[in-house]
Amino acid sequence: MAEHTVVKVGSRKSQLAMIQTNTVIDVLKKTFSDIKFEIVAMSTVGDKILDAALSKIGEKSLFTRELEVALEEKEVDFVVHSLKDLPTTLPDGLVVGCVFKRDSPFDAVVMHPKHEGKKLEDLEEGSIIGTSSLRRAAQLGRKFPQFKFENIRGNLNTRFRKLDEDEKYDAIILAEAGLDRMGWRHRISQVLDTDVCMYAVSQGAMGVECRYDDQKTLDLLATIHDSDTALCCIAERAYLKELGGGCSVPVSVETKLRDNKIEIRGGVFSLDGTEAVIDSHSATLKTDIDDEPPLKKQKETSNGPKLFSSIVHTKGISQEKCRIAENVGKELADRLLQTEAAGILATARQQTEVAILEEKKRKEAEKNETEMIQIPKC
Ligand code: DPM
């Protein structure tokens, strides 16, 4: 590669986003010491709207759209995201160029300092748990019907401030991965078992988005692609896509790779958690067709690399395995949709839509009264 090559990297401005972006850049720098990586930081809709639950904002690609426009305009070459914030369908021409090795996919409890040392089950009836994730509220509401779940927004720093200073919340629920990356492991009082709370699709994994036709960037990213993470996230994203989900419905998942098998468990919940359907599915990741198809054949079928759940197929991982992973996720969703899960999802979606409309009305009403505070959010 020529000297002084510059690669522009888009990132949200929040501390977590910057940490994630720098993590990816640092690993790339080890292999590509002659490349200069320049970060272009920007805010997204999700960063700007801080007074509404994510699910009530009613827009897709909340944390990604502005960055995707920058990619399309070639102002940046790649963007590092939390893969769970990337919609299952990406804009034409954009792909997940690689997924970085997954950190903890689990959710964790952070207590108000007055409850230090306690676990969720030790909190009194009526305690207030802060989360704006429908998935967390539904699953925890199911296990702990004695608690109240209230919306909390803002970036991680803001949430910690709200927890510690507002005296409103007894605890908040956050992804262990995010807490770890921020260096806040010491504030974790409990990591939630998947029997209590299954995680969000792709939680804990970082995904790097780039242009499909940008082979130079794809080659760069292929060097940090993690096969096991990719297989799990392909399955999880296929599952969510087939369910038609996004952050407007309480959908959760758990995926394991072991003994050459992929096992996926998924749940669909009513908003209050009283109804739930959980099912699982698995498939053998065959090893006998690990070889890439001969180059000639590949050229005949497509011009560029194949995509599985919008994730680019890279060398070092068999296409067959990716296809099996994608199918296992899709099939789990199909199975769930044949049960009462279909109705539960439809109702949850409808209720969220009503909440979106109410939120819009509320916004209209207070439009001129409140100034929007602009604090970066992750
Ligand atoms: C999405 C959700 C949340 C984020 C919904 C969910 C949490 C929102 C909230 C899709 N994106 O998980 O059910 O709790 O109010 C987000 C976080 C991370 C990525 C923060 C978090 C960091 C961890 C990771 C926000 N996106 O979940 O605590 O890399 O997965």
Describe, in plain words, how this protein is organized in 3D:
- There is one protein chain.
- The chain is of the alpha/beta class and 378 residues long.
- The protein has two domains: 5-104 and 201-337, Periplasmic binding protein-like II (D-Maltodextrin-Binding Protein, domain 2, 3-Layer(aba) Sandwich), CATH 3.40.190; 107-191, Periplasmic binding protein-like II (D-Maltodextrin-Binding Protein, domain 2), CATH 3.40.190.10.
- The protein is 36% helix and 22% strand.
- The chain has twelve helices and 15 strands.
- The strands form four sheets. Strands 2-1-3-10-4 form a five-stranded mixed β-sheet, sandwiched between helices. Strands 7-6-8-5-9 form a five-stranded mixed β-sheet. It has a three-stranded antiparallel β-sheet with strand order 11-12-13.
- A hairpin with a 2-residue loop joins strand 14 (307-308) and strand 15.
- Helix 9 (227-243) runs parallel beside helix 11.
- The two termini are 34 Å apart.
- The model is unreliable at 294-301 and 373-378 (pLDDT under 50).
- Bound molecules: ligand DPM.
